[in-house]
Design goal:
The structure holds two protein chains of two kinds. Chain A is about 15% helix and about 35% strand. By secondary structure, chain A is of the alpha+beta class. In chain B, the strands form two sheets. A five-stranded antiparallel beta sheet of chain B has the order 3-5-6-7-4, with helices on one face. The chains are: A alpha+beta, B alpha+beta.
Chain lengths: ~150, ~160
């Protein structure tokens, strides 16, 4: 399949959204996440220390919401042989705290064709919106996938 | 009295001395952030797989990784992103708010290889209650290759407070 055909086929999926999934954030999840990074900041596990900060309690590390990856039906485009993780963005509107109910929903946001050194590339973008129980936006995650 | 946490008594073995929140008046464009050095192990990748729910085998099963054309298991992109986030939050201090972390993956990193996380201040915008610092951030393999490149934005309380 040529790059032109591939991008045309992939474009049909742009705008598709996957099912919403939710989780309740627990202190242990935050602590485990911080431990797995090797981040010993007490803000993520020591309630007493965290109380004295601006936040008044434990918060999660900046990119914590990457653990909630809502499913997104990915189109199977017969192009190239390699799939790569191109990058990720996390934008936060407020810190995530224990007890938060977070609802994530992913959208197949964009696809672009690009001519690279080693030939053509398909560049996909998935965007996940994270809202809380009241419907307020907590964060946005964007993932870029490359097929070449 | 020893603090009781949800998983036992006392501080974690890797507990750090809590940093102070940065005073925006002491920062200038071009300032380098203190380097954060990580020494990933396969054990850590397994911990991150469990904590993040990313069980793609190339991050802990050597046979699958090699079969996929990789030299062996590789570090998760999201783990490298989290380290770049740690660089910023550890530097800015507990009252800072990391607004954005944006990274692109330019190369693989493997357990056993040191991963150095670095950053530099690129812009400062002073507000009445909040100062926003823009940063260039990157992660580097032992050969000096920047395998992760990105930017971040962090908010600090201005002198007048929040």
């Amino acid at each position: 399949m040529t790059l032109e055909q591939a991008v045309e086929q992939a474009r049909r999926y742009v705008g598709m959204v996957g099912p919403a999934v939710s989780m309740t954030v627990e202190r242990t999840m935050i602590r485990r996440f911080a431990e797995s990074i090797g981040d010993g900041n007490p803000l993520y596990w020591d309630e007493e220390y965290a109380k004295a900060t601006r936040w008044g309690g434990i918060i999660a590390p900046p990119t914590f919401l990457c653990l909630l990856l809502p499913p997104l039906p990915v189109p199977d485009i017969d192009f190239g042989t390699i799939k790569l993780n191109g990058g990720s963005v996390f934008e936060s509107f407020r810190p995530v705290r224990p007890g938060d109910v977070i609802i994530g929903q992913a959208e197949y946001a964009d696809v672009q064709a690009k001519e690279g050194k080693g030939g053509g590339m398909l560049i996909f973008q998935g965007r996940t919106r994270y809202t809380d129980g009241e419907g307020h936006l907590v964060g946005i995650g964007i993932g870029t996938g490359i097929q070449k | 009295m020893t603090a009781v946490t949800d998983e036992g008594v006392g501080p974690r073995p890797d507990a750090i001395v809590p940093p102070r929140t940065l005073d925006p008046a002491t920062i200038a464009v071009g300032d380098r952030l203190p380097t954060l050095v990580k020494n990933p192990t396969t054990r850590q990748l397994v911990m991150f797989a469990g904590a993040s729910g990313d069980f793609y085998e190339i991050h802990y099963d050597n046979a699958v990784a090699v079969e996929s054309g990789l030299p062996g298991v590789i570090v998760h992109g999201y783990l490298k992103m989290a380290w770049l986030g740690e660089l910023v939050s550890a530097w800015a201090g507990p009252d800072a708010f990391v607004q954005r972390v944006d990274v692109s993956y330019r190369g693989i990193d493997v357990p056993g290889d040191e991963y150095r996380v670095e950053g530099q201040v690129t812009a400062i915008s002073l507000g009445d209650s909040v100062t926003t610092i823009e940063l260039e951030i990157w992660g580097q393999s032992p050969t000096g290759t920047k395998t992760t490149l990105g930017t971040a934005a962090v908010q600090l309380p201005s002198a007048s407070g929040w």
